[in-house]
Automatic annotation (TrEMBL):
Protein name: Histidinol-phosphate aminotransferase
Residues modified to N6-(pyridoxal phosphate)lysine: 209
Subunit field text: Homodimer.
This protein's encoding gene: hisC
HAMAP family: HisC_aminotrans_2
Gene3D superfamilies, A to Z: Aspartate Aminotransferase, domain 1, Type I PLP-dependent aspartate aminotransferase-like (Major domain)
Pathway(s) it belongs to: Amino-acid biosynthesis; L-histidine biosynthesis; L-histidine from 5-phospho-alpha-D-ribose 1-diphosphate: step 7/9; Lipid metabolism
Protein EC: 2.6.1.9
Organism: Mucilaginibacter myungsuensis
Sorted UniProt keywords: Amino-acid biosynthesis, Aminotransferase, Histidine biosynthesis, Pyridoxal phosphate, Transferase
Domain of life: Bacteria
Length: 349
């Protein structure tokens, strides 16, 4: 059913990608005078005078070992936000095509659609923050190219029912993008293992959250080889800089440390829930599969401002549909969490 050539933009199908000096000569040589770099070095301790590997081979090799997928099924971007933008640019004809988002969800799907002049069709989640599969099916037409599903979902924190995502994958002839930015905290297993099953699946992950590398801007997309090839064609040639590639590689050797933090974050999340659930102004705390909780309160603006006065910043989500009265709290260190709990206990509405 799925045919990538039916959903690719014609200009991208016919695109000849930029061919860099590093693309044209791939072997080992002793003298490189092909890229107009500074051959003397960099005014830094470390040499950054050479362009980075455009295909981030070492990083992909390590990711491949960790994730259990071949490097040819991995795209590495300047954050997963870059992968989001590239999917629009590769598959959505501006002013013609449309995509489906399921609010409340991550804001960049909408911003990127607007930047690329792509129509956005909003199909809200149900009251319990799950997919309304029938309503999604009704909004799909021949110009619908992408469906964005964030699981665990930001800002609600819950995972999306797997069977519903599989229904979309099996019946939709465009791409289903499953954004797993918070998968490391989830009880659900990743969709990466389903890549062999569904040719129209794209899974996004990132080193920005559990891996603690938000500043480096390294995100990944996992998909079929033909989808990854298209994404590589569209991306800027040197989209992930050398310092980020080297540091990501170093960090990826520390899986144990990251797993330790994940365990601690989950136990801190439980403590946070216990610490605030009985407060008068807390109406509900939604079950979370992520490193944050969405808390429904009687007065999100009042609580947000009170916390700001005490030097604590949370995310006020009260203006987001289906999140009226809610604030999103990231789980911090034990000390930070205690400070937040104590501060909330002294709040008098
Ligand atoms: C934080 C976040 C991202 C952004 O990831 P980067 O790799 O830092 O660009 C993507 N998706 C969701 C749902 C997020 O919450």
């Amino acid at each position: 059913m799925f045919d990538i050539n039916k959903i690719l933009r014609p200009n991208i199908k016919n695109l000849t990608p930029y061919s860099s000096a590093r693309d044209e000569f791939k072997g080992e040589a002793s003298v490189y005078l092909d890229a107009n770099e500074n051959a003397y070095g960099s005014p830094l301790d470390k040499d950054y005078n050479r362009y980075p590997d455009p295909m981030q081979y070492q990083v992909k090799k390590r990711l491949s070992e960790i994730k259990g997928v071949p490097p040819r099924n991995i795209f590495v971007g300047n954050g997963s936000d870059e992968a989001i933008d590239i999917l629009y640019r590769a598959f959505c004809n501006p002013g013609v095509d449309n995509v489906i988002i399921v609010p409340p969800t991550y804001g960049m799907y909408e911003v990127s659609a607007n930047i690329n002049d792509v129509e956005l069709r909003r199909v809200p989640l149900t009251e319990d923050y799950q997919l309304d599969v029938d309503a999604i099916a009704e909004r799909i037409d021949k110009n619908t190219k992408l469906i964005w599903v964030c699981s665990p979902n930001n800002p609600t924190g819950n995972s999306i029912n797997r069977a519903d995502v599989e229904t979309l994958l099996a019946n939709f002839s465009g791409l289903v993008v499953v954004d797993e930015a918070y998968i490391n905290f989830s009880r659900q297993k990743t969709f990466i293992q389903e890549l062999t099953e569904y040719a129209n699946l794209v899974v996004l992950q990132t080193l920005s959250k559990a891996w603690g590398l938000a500043a480096l801007r390294v995100g990944m997309a996992f998909a079929s080889e033909e989808i990854i090839e298209v994404m590589n064609k569209v991306k800027p040639p040197y989209n992930v800089n050398e310092a980020s590639q080297q540091l990501a590689l170093e960090a990826l050797a520390n899986v144990d440390k990251v797993n330790g933090w994940i365990k601690e974050t989950l136990s801190e999340r439980d403590k946070m829930v216990l610490g605030i659930k009985d407060l008068d102004f807390v109406l509900d705390i939604y079950p979370s599969d992520a490193n944050f909780i969405l808390v429904k309160t009687t007065d999100a603006n009042g609580i947000y401002n009170y916390l700001v006065q005490h030097g604590i910043i949370v995310r006020n989500r009260t203006k987001v549909e289906l999140c009226e009265g809610s604030i999103r709290i990231t789980i911090g260190t034990p000390e930070e969490n205690v400070k937040l709990i104590e501060t909330l206990h002294s709040y008098k509405g």
